[in-house]
Amino acid sequence: MDNFNGYPVALDASTDTTNPTTSDILADTGAVRGGVYEVRVTVGASAAAKFAVQRRNAGNSATVGDVVVVYCAANASVCHPLKFELEPNERVRVTMAASLTGTGAVTIMAQRCG
């Protein structure tokens, strides 16, 4: 990942989950300082899968704004570069948007860029 204005890669979360169900949380950045973040979400699955990338409020009690839905073909992975303007203590997380029979894998890398 690039180094924006001297900001290093700040957050990295990943998991492999077998038979995840709808709304299972697969990766979460945790609370971040406010700012603009480049977030790279890499998803993979052993069967076709549907994931939801969510921006969460500071209390982690509600989704803020639109949910970005990403898809992955069977036995493949794909990286989605996204940009979020986050308030202090907000976070980005990835959940399953539909249940999956098989293994799902997610990695989130977030870097402050402004």
Explain how this protein is built:
This protein has 114 residues and is mainly β. It starts with 10 loop residues before the first strand and ends with a strand. It contains no helices and eight strands. It has one domain: Jelly Rolls.
Give the topology.
Elements: E1 11-18, E2 25-28, E3 35-45, E4 49-56, E5 68-72, E6 76-86, E7 91-96, E8 103-112
Antiparallel strand pairs: 1-8, 2-7, 3-6, 3-8, 4-5, 4-7
Provide the descriptors you would attach to this structure in a database record.
114 residues; mainly beta; Jelly Rolls; four-stranded antiparallel beta sheet; 8 strands
Just give the CATH class. Answer: Mainly Beta
Estimate the helix proportion, in percent. Answer: under 10%
In sequence order, what are the helices and strands, one letter per element?
A: EEEEEEEE
Count every beta strand, where a strand is a DSSP E run of 2 or more residues. 8
In the residues, how many domains can be counted?
1
Helix- and strand-based class?
A: mainly beta
Please give a quick description of this structure:
The protein has 114 residues and is mainly beta. The protein is 0% helix and 55% strand.
